[in-house]
C-alpha cells in the first residue's frame, strides 16, 4: 500500500475520505448534471452517464453559470451531491456554493490534479491544511 | 495565507450583534474571501441576485424563509437589490405546461425575497433596463452575462456573485476584495485577433463561444483586437454572455471599444503575448458543433440573454404577416419592463399574432427546461443565442444555432431551413 500527499491552496469545508471520480474536463452543476438522477447528463462531458453521488469529483476548471452556488446545497439536502470537489481552478461560484452547501472544495494544486489522482483511488481531503492524501494498494 | 481583515462594524456583524441573517452573510463572505486570499471587504452600491426556483430547490427556499421570519431590522437588505429572471411567468406558465409544484415553490421564494426588501425585477439585462453601472463602481452582480457586461463594457467592478454570496452582499453591503475588484486582476492575459467580422447576433455569440472555449480559468482576461465596427449594446451583450457561459469569464477587453482598452499598452504589462487568429473557419466549426443531421424542429427560443426592446422589434418585424408552423413552438423571453414597452408599442401583438409566445421575467433555461421539454415533447431546439445552445445540451435537448432570421424562417416552415 502506498500513500501520496498532494499540496494545494487551503480549501473550504470539512475533512472527508472517499473514492475519486476523475476526468480532464470542466464542471458546472447546471450545465453538466442531471441533479435528480445523480449522473453527468451533458453528452459531450468526459463523464457523461457516470454517477457522481458520494464521489470525490476531480476535474479541471469550474465553468458555466452562477446557479451552482445555490444548487450544491440543494443537492446535498437531497443526498445527490458529490462528497468533495477537487479542481485545478475553482471560480467564485464554486467557492460560494461549497461554502453555502457545506461541500469540501480545494484547488490550485502543485501540478495537474486530474493527472495525479486516478478514478477509483481512495482519497482523503483535508481542506484546512491544503492537503490531499491518496492511498493505493 | 493572510487573514481577511475586518473593521469593527464587520466584526460585530460576524459576531451576530446585528442579527442572524447578517451573521450568516458575514460567514459566507469570510469563507469565500479567505479562499481567494482577499485582504479585506469592499463596500458595494447595488446587488443583482440570481435566484430562480430551479436553482434554489426546496432546501434553499426553506433557508430564505427562515431569514424572512427574522425581525425586519435584521433581515432587510442594506443596498438596492434586484433579481435575475424567475423560474416561471405566472401569466403564461400553463401555456407551456409547467408543473404547479414549480409555481408554488416560485411563489414561496418570491414572498421570502420581498420580506427581505428585494426588488423583483426578474431580469438578466439589468444593465440595459434598470440601473446601468458606472465605471469604477463596485458591485455584486449575480448573472454571468450581466457581470461580464458591467466589468467589460461599463468598466464597473464585480466578480460572479452566485445567489448565496449576492444575498450576503445585500445583507452587509460588502463583498470580499479579490478578483476583478483589484486593478492587478483586470490586466490582459491572452490575445485574439478577429479576422472575420461578426455579421449578426448569433455570430457575436459564436465569437464569444470560440474565445470562451479557449479560456483556462476564471481569472484569465482575454483581449480582443481586429473589430472594425463598434458593436451595438445587443451585439456585445451576446458576445459577452457567450464568452462568460463557455469560459467562466467575467472580464474582457476589446481594443478601441471597451473603456479600459484604448490600446494594447493600456491592458498588457510589458510585451503583449502572441496572438491567436480567429478566422471564418473557426466560426464554421463552432456553428458545426450546434448542427444536426436532419431538419426536424420542435421549438425555437429567443432568450439568454433576455431580449431588449430593439431585439423584440426585430423579431416582430420578421414575424409580421407570417404564421409559426403548427408543429413548432416559438418562444421569446424578456424583462417585465421591456414586456410593458412591447405591449404598448404593438410588438407583443406582432409576435403573438404570428403564433409566437412572449414571456416576461423568465429565461428559457431557468424555468425547468428539462421538465417543460418532456411535457411538450420538445427535443430539437433552435436559437440565435450561443449561450442557450451551450446550456441546453445538458438538459437533454439537441440544439441548433442560427441567425434570428433563419430561426424565424425555420419556425414558419416547420423544419430547420438552410
Write a structural description.
The complex is a heterodimer of chains A (137) and B (418). With 137 residues, chain A is α/β, with parallel strands linked by helices. Chain A is 20% helix and 31% strand. Chain A has 4 helices and 9 strands, in the order ββαβββαβαβαββ. In chain A, helix 2 packs parallel to helix 3. The relative contact order of chain A is 0.31. The model of chain A has no long low-confidence stretch (mean pLDDT 95). In chain B, the strands form 4 sheets. A 5-stranded parallel beta sheet of chain B has the order 12-11-10-13-14. A 4-stranded parallel beta sheet of chain B has the order 8-7-6-9. In chain B, strands 3-2-4 form a 3-stranded parallel beta sheet. In chain B, helix 9 runs parallel beside helix 10, helix 9 crosses helix 11 and helix 12 packs parallel to helix 14. Classes of the chains: A alpha/beta (137), B alpha/beta (418). Chains A and B meet through helix 1, strand 3, helix 2 and helix 3 of A and helix 2, helix 3, helix 8 and helix 10 of B.
Can you summarize this structure?
The complex is a heterodimer of chains A (137) and B (418). By secondary structure, chain A is an alpha/beta fold.
Strand portion of chain B: 5-15%
From the N-terminal CA to the C-terminal CA of chain B, the straight-line distance is 57 Å
The poorly predicted ranges of chain B are none
Binned strand content of chain A: 25-35%
Question: Quick one: biggest sheet of chain A?
Answer: 7 strands, mixed
Q: Which helices and strands occur, and which strands form pairs?
A:
The complex is a heterodimer of chains A (137) and B (418).
Chain A: E1 2-7, E2 16-22, H1 29-32, E3 33-34, E4 39-40, E5 56-61, H2 68-77, E6 84-89, H3 92-101, E7 105-106, H4 113-116, E8 122-126, E9 131-136
Parallel strand pairs in A: 2-5, 5-6, 6-7
Antiparallel strand pairs in A: 1-9, 2-8, 3-4, 8-9
Helix pairs in contact in A: 2-3
Chain B: H1 8-15, H2 20-35, E1 41-43, E2 47-49, H3 53-68, H4 72-75, E3 81-83, H5 100-115, H6 126-129, E4 140-141, H7 144-152, H8 163-172, E5 174-176, E6 190-194, H9 201-212, E7 222-225, H10 233-247, E8 253-254, E9 275-278, H11 280-288, E10 299-302, H12 309-319, E11 329-334, H13 336-344, H14 347-353, E12 357-360, H15 369-376, E13 380-383, H16 386-391, E14 398-401, H17 404-413
Parallel strand pairs in B: 2-3, 2-4, 6-7, 6-9, 7-8, 10-11, 10-13, 11-12, 13-14
Antiparallel strand pairs in B: 1-5
Helix pairs in contact in B: 1-2, 2-8, 3-5, 7-10, 9-10, 9-11, 12-14
